[in-house]
Amino acid sequence: MAAMDRSGTVPVNGFDMYFEERGDGAPLLLLHGGSGIGADWKHVFTDGDPAGFRVIVPDLRGHGRSTNPSGVFTFRQVAKDVLALLDHLGVQRASAIGLSAGAKTLLHVATQQRDRVDAMVLVSATPRFPDEARAAMAQLSVDAFSDAEWTMHRQRHVHGDDQIRLLFAQMRGLKDDDTDMAFTPAQLATITARTLIVHGDRDPLYPVELALEMYRAIQKSALWVVPGGEHGPIFGARAKAFRETAHAFLVAGG
Fold first, then answer.
1. Could you tell me what percent of the chain has a pLDDT over 70?
2. How far is residue 3 CA from its own chain's centroid?
């Protein structure tokens, strides 16, 4: 019998984490990007969730329907949140796909508790923030939002304008980070999960050399450089190839 689909919030690490759970099979985490929401994955998996998986799709702390009363946002902490959600759901080991912020979170998950991740797909990840990313983060501000942008964000992040302002202030504050995202090759080498690194060769935030650095350090890794791809090269016309490649990689070890 298939598992019953469900959604709701669960208290973890001092905040309420919203999640959706669908399907039946091996657990598969889908972690969205910064200022995104879990529902963004519907723009990638346009024909439905990956077949054969129990898909677990949270909103990261402070995003979407999840709260963040502490005002704290680090990828190290978000990894602990994700692990707490897995504990709540009784999931000891899962595969995962992470986009940008979600991929950075997975680097922490896979190094904090190596036995919890079977296989993972890292889209537009980075071991650290290069100058290009810091410069882009410095420009993030809700003050530049148009009325249409405010409307869009209010529909996605449902806890009011203060939530949106805090979220973008946190994303901007990452420009000053020197410790949260500071993975050395030696640290990356401790990752035991099979890892597919997906990276656009025209990513304006994280040069493709950083993807190559991760590929060389993570022992059981594969690298897919998307020609002409920018940041998050898995949407639109590229979604079909990503769905097929990611699914084939995740089931290969099963």
1. 98
2. 24
**Segment 225-228 long-range contacts (CB within 8 Å, at least 24 positions apart):** 225/199, 225/200, 225/201, 226/198, 226/199, 226/200, 226/201, 227/201, 228/200, 228/201, 228/202
pTM of the model: 0.97
Between CA 190 and CA 214 the distance in angstroms is 12
| Residue 1 scores a pLDDT above 50 | no
Contact 105, 75 (CB under 8 A): yes
Would you state the structure tokens that stand for residue 104, as one six-digit string?
A: 């950075």
Which pair of structure tokens corresponds to residue 194? 């099979």
Only one residue has tokens 């519907």, namely: 42
The whole-number pLDDT of residue 253 equals 74
Domains of the chain: 6-129+182-252 (3.40.50.1820)
For residues 223 and 176, give the distance between their C-alpha atoms in angstroms, rounded to a whole number.
29
Residue 225 amino acid letter: V
119-163: pLDDT as tens digits = 999 999 999 999 999 999 999 999 999 999 999 999 999 999 999
Asked whether the predicted pLDDT for residue 3 surpasses 60, the reply is no
DSSP character string of 28-73: EEEE--TT--GGGGGGTSTTSSPTTEEEEEEPPTTSTT---TT---
